[in-house]
Amino acid sequence: MDVFTIGHSDRSLEDFLSLLNEKGIEVLYDVRSFPTSKFVPHFSKDFLSNTVEAAGILYIWDRRLGGYRRFGRDVEDLGIAKCFKSQGFRAYATYLTMNPLAREAASKL
């Protein structure tokens, strides 16, 4: 099975669905910690899930792989992700590596 990543950015809903269909996507696995969008509301969880499922694509939301992780709150800084300059990226990489829930979610994916 192939796994693709996609960001919604400010795409129109039509462009987003067209891209999913073009690539033959059968499951949209949403990993956003906060699946809402103030600026592009058609990418908010409820609207998006209803829309993609109406197009025949299974929608799954799983916050365990989402970003916005912080040292001290979500994970201890063990110094294992020093290749990233951004503290946020280091925290996220450490979280994905060390958190059993994140590893479980990655296995499910």
Task: Describe the 3D structure.
The protein has 109 residues and is mostly helical. The protein has four helices and two strands; from the N terminus they run H-E-H-E-H-H. The chain folds into two domains: 13-61, no CATH class; 68-109, no CATH class. Strands 1-2 form a two-stranded parallel ribbon. Helix 2 links the parallel strand 1 and strand 2. The longest helix has 12 residues, at 87-98. It is elongated, with a radius of gyration of 16 Å.
- Helical stretch tally: 4
Overall pLDDT metric: 93
Overall radius of gyration = 16 Å
Portion of residues in helices?
25-40%
**Structural class, judged by helices and strands?**
mainly alpha
Count of DSSP E strands?
Answer: 2
| Overall morphology | elongated
> How many structural domains can be distinguished in the coordinates?
2
Instruction: Give the distance, in angstroms, between the N- and C-terminal Cα atoms.
Output: 11 Å
Strand content: 5-15%
Tell me about the biggest sheet? 2 strands, parallel
The ordered string of helix (H) and strand (E) elements is HEHEHH
Please state how the strands of the largest beta sheet are arranged side by side: 1-2
Spans of at least 5 consecutive residues whose pLDDT stays below 50 are none
Task: Based on the model shown, name its key terms.
109 residues, mainly alpha, two-stranded parallel ribbon, 4 helices, 38% helix, elongated
Short description:
The chain is mainly α and 109 residues long.
Write the layout of secondary structure elements.
Elements: H1 13-22, E1 27-30, H2 45-54, E2 58-61, H3 87-98, H4 100-108
Parallel strand pairs: 1-2
